[in-house]
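Researcher: Here's the sequence for the chain we discussed earlier.
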Amino acid sequence: MHIRLDSDVVQRLRSTLAHAGERESGGQLFGEQLAVSDFRVTELTVQARPGTLTRFFVDVLQAARDALRFFEHTRHDYQRFNYIGEWHSHPSFAVIPSGTDTATMRNLVCDPAFRGRFAVLMIVRLDGEFLTVGAWVFDPHGTEQAITVEMSQ
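Model: Thanks. This is the structure I predict for it:
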């Protein structure tokens, strides 16, 4: 799987992480399917309520509102535009999923209410001007693997 981040998304990540400082932040990834297993993030949401120094908690109500806005904006064209996954920062840790991160994503994709074929977890960190990104895909069959993220500057 391949995920592309356009320069406006990369800039939003940078400014969000700079503003959050040492606190974790996060949100959702929505985008466009370009080809099989090839996606471009067209919208990166940022949760208003920040996390702590060591944890990010999803605001389910804001996430639902953000998803509804995205789907209305894309006229519910689910074949082309859809939910890709979640993102959050690890300002004090490596950009690899913690045990909590992995369990949360497994629970998400295995929930009977989840209608997707997969969900991506993207973890980011800003070190000065350098943005580090790691991403993994999770599916309801129990598959988890690292994926490629391409960033436009």
